[in-house]
Amino acid sequence: xxGESSTNDLPSRDPAATYDALQDEIGRVLIGNxxxxxxxxxxxxxxxxxxxxxxxxxxxxxxxxxxxRVSGLEYNRIQMTPDIVPxxxxxxxxxxxSTGDFTLQRGPIFANLVVADEINRATPKTQxxxxxxxxxxxxxxxxxxxxxxxxxxxxxxxxxIEIEGVFELPEAQRDRFQxxxxxxxPERAVERQLLDQFDDDPELGPxxxxxxxxxGELLAARETVADVYVAPAIKEYVLDLVTATRDHPDxxxxxxxxxxxxxxxxxxxxxAIHGREYVIPDDVKELAEVILAHRLVLSTDADLxxxxxxxxxxxxxxxxxxxxxxxxxxxxxxxDNG
Length: 338
Hints:
By secondary structure, the chain is of the alpha/beta class. Helix content is 42%, strand content 14%. The chain is globular and about 70 Å long.
């Protein structure tokens, strides 16, 4: 116990320590989701939003709930259905008979972490109710503009196998998501671990984890991420990748400038949580698919030929030459050599 702090052993503002603490605590309940937790951490540290796609029963909503609990974020879940209207998300003014006045009833979007479950079941009008909050960090209710909490993050889930009664997200809505993550079925060995884990403790759930980081520390970690160095060669590499999506013969509309900025912020955070003060080409490569694929609009021929957006991103990454290792580290200050 010697040398330990008196603040419940909360991690420091160091992004790497914060990330390790989140991974370890979530891993007490959920096994095999390390990559998703990494991307959620990156998004949280860079004011991003995440779209989770996967078949039912693979713990997408549980993952979001766990992430909120361990990071100390106020959490609200919205079950999206065709009959939900925008006011059900943002809120409205309600008449109080006891006072004779209208009072503001804030909707579930007023939370640090908002989970829009099965977002593609809501109508486009209702889906768009999230747009202002995701982009502007505020919402307008009957002419009154209200700020959302800080931090603020949306995690939306969708089921890729259902086609009846669902509404595909509009391009503008997809572009608002920093990442689109595909949550796959677990490998057999991981699923066996789950069997053993829940055999030992059938009631294991999100309420069994503890908060391991305070919101103030997350905000401080954001400042550390912002100071990570991105070399000019890395910026050119990002531009080459984004341009390649726009020039690809199977793509009608390539990645937007918002994708370019997503690379800038996300690679900084990935470098920081892995203990580096500068971005390397592997940071860009590792994030390329989750940043780019959902933003691509394929040509009609590509759609009819079942061309995969992921395959296009893989091809782009393989054909664009990354910068050399000697061009990405921060320059040495002139006074360092005496």
